[in-house]
């Protein structure tokens, strides 16, 4: 593909139709030709940060195979731009496209910490681990300025409530002081996503994320400071990063990770069209091979939504991937395990010092 036609710094290369809208928007060739003749950019490719004010911030997770009971997201949309991201589809509920809009229209929940504290103060609430970034990354670039994730961590620390984090951004180290304080009472676990050791692969899959080297350094620093880290080899994409499972497992074990988890890529909803367009433009020499191998993992489709099989797939290629992960765990994580977080302190701190006088 001609590099001039690639939208730099973005994963998606188009805005797909929002399934909830009757009308659609498209860029016509005559408009692009007009912009070319006039020396104008047809697309400014700028990120917009838009404040939103939801009434709640913590969501009950009903899916039985995602490994969490509650999640919260400080941002909707994610500037990291990971081409495979399952969260893209959720942007349609906000009136945007799952394609470029997901990366360039970031909805910011400035009141997140207040909403969280209101929940934790409720008499009916009982301590269960809340996962930050169940949908979009809480340490995406917007967090550098807004600091909403840090504010929420301060609330978790105040109430001694367990929290888990999923991220692929080294910005998490900014909050090492709070993470260490939470770790003293076994109230924190961190999940770092690392999909490749190859920087070229990382750059095209996840254009605005921390480098692979930086993520390994992040795992090392967190681990050295007593913060338990699970590394997510997710997603595994056949013929893109599937050959890296053992090297990845070895590398993250050596820097202190206590466990690895994985999923096999599935292209649900609008992501199938977005990913197909992207790979045919970005990796045209192997596009059809990769797409067919993904289909092989999901019964002939790019997506399988059945609980129990959708995450790890089925068929020969999926079996090879899953067997490699099992081997990696036996080889590099035999005597390691992530701890269960502490839920016993929250009740004492729920009402602050008032509980001491009851």
UniProtKB/TrEMBL annotation:
**Keywords from the UniProt entry:** Iron, Iron-sulfur, Metal-binding
Key word RNA-binding present in the record? Answer: no
UniProt-listed PROSITE patterns:
RADICAL_SAM
Which top-level group of life is the source organism from? Bacteria
Q: Which GO terms describe its molecular function?
A: catalytic activity; iron-sulfur cluster binding; metal ion binding
Q: Start and end of every Radical SAM core domain?
A: 64-310
- Stored InterPro entries: Elp3/MiaA/NifB-like_rSAM, MJ0683-like, rSAM, rSAM_sf
Q: Which residues form the signal peptide?
A: none
* The name this protein goes by in its record: Radical SAM protein
Q: Which organism is it from?
A: Lacinutrix venerupis
